[in-house]
Amino acid sequence: MILLPAMLQFAGKYLRMVLKVKKIITVEHKRSGIWQDTDITYAQVPGWLGKATMDLKLTILRPFEEQSHPLPVILWFCGGGWMAVDNNIHLPNLVDFVRAGFIIASVDYRNSNQAVWPAQLEDAKAAVRYLKAHADHYQIDVNKIAVMGESAGGHLASMTAVTNGLRNFDVGEYLTQTSNIQAAVSWYGVVDPLSAKNNSKTADFDFVYRNLLGAEPEESPELDAEANPLTFITSKTVPFLILHGTEDKVVPLADDEKLYQALTDKGVPADLYEVKGAAHMDEVFMQPQITDIIIDFLKKHLK
Q1: Residue 9, in any domain of the structure
Q2: How far is CA 187 from CA 43, 45, 58, 170, in A?
Q3: For residue 114, what are the CA distances in angstroms to 109, 111, 170, 197, 200?
Q4: Distance between CA atoms of 28 and 31, rounded to whole angstroms?
Q5: 245, β-bridge pairs
Q6: Which strands form 240-245's sheet, in the order they lie side by side?
Q7: 25 within some domain
Q8: Cα 143 to Cα 125, 160, 248, 303, distances in angstroms
Q9: Which of 89, 104, 143, 272 is the most buried (most CB within 10 A)?
Q10: Residue 16 in domain
Q11: For residue 184, which of 128, 115, 117 has the smallest C-alpha distance?
Q12: Which CATH number is 182's domain given?
């Protein structure tokens, strides 16, 4: 029993030594870190009844280490029925594109309470011009620019793409730059506002088209046509990837089928993926299988 205190003391000392042993490991460098550059003002537009100035923002995600060469960029436009815009809401879901070698520029644009169409298109094009003007700073390849968006943002991506070369929508700064892009990806995007209103399986969102145009689409065919990508498609339109769920009750799948047909009729490279069982703004569109489809499409067409 006399030895017990000494034994306990020894055991405690040994235990403390074990706990203090350093762990040395070798870590394989498999991927780059990611920069996030937030609250970048890309344009200033009229605010508060035209009496003030409002900043339009974008956020950029880009690889931390890969700064030796320019990279392709994807401009992302979130959805929200042109009523609510949060350009940062999907950033966590867009990281996979950065991991695949793209820069993400998630773009704020005016909602329909702030300005009616085509203000949203003017904003999108202003963002393209800003990024081109600052390409060296953000390591952007100005010849590899894609636009992508969901729902109302999908409509904006489509409209940005089909109006390549139409300078009447270029308003604001950096007008020495063009707003031309090289590829478009639309997730269940609105095509024709009138058709979307008339053929939706729900009337809950009929008001968003009036708010966007400043008039009912059925009463304003010229305004409706100006916000319809079908109006602008030519044989020179850039390649399109279209994604749409078969159970979408908000935006008619048939409208995207019509967009796909119009593109292919003009000889434009286009792919349409109808996602079985997917609803509007379904989480399935954030799954790796969809991400891989988009990445493969962009790598094929952004050459």
Answers
A1: no
A2: 25, 27, 20, 24
A3: 10, 5, 19, 21, 25
A4: 9
A5: 275
A6: 34-47, 52-63, 103-107, 71-77, 140-150, 183-187, 240-245, 270-275
A7: no
A8: 15, 16, 34, 8
A9: 104
A10: no
A11: 128
A12: 3.40.50.1820
User: How many separate domains does the chain show?
Assistant: 1
Structure tokens at 209: 């088209």
- How far is residue 222's CA from residue 214's CA, in Å, rounded to a whole number? 12
Give the structural domain span for 249.
37-301
Please report whether residue 3 resides in a domain: no
Determine the Cα angle at 121 with ends 120 and 123, to 5°.
65
Residues sharing a CB contact under 8 Å with residue 51, sequence separation 6 or more, in sequence order: none
Task: Give pLDDT tens digits along the chain (303 positions).
Answer: 556 666 667 666 665 655 567 889 999 988 888 999 999 999 999 988 888 999 999 999 999 876 778 999 999 999 999 999 999 999 999 999 999 999 999 999 999 999 999 999 999 999 999 999 999 999 999 999 999 999 999 999 999 999 999 999 999 999 999 999 999 999 999 999 999 999 999 999 999 999 999 999 999 999 999 999 999 999 999 999 999 999 999 999 999 999 999 999 999 999 999 999 999 999 999 999 999 999 999 999 998
Residue 132: count of CB within 10 angstroms of its CB = 20
Closest Cα to residue 286, out of 90, 36, 103? 90
**What is the SS3 assignment for 275?**
strand
Backbone angles phi, psi at 42, to 5 degrees: -100, -15
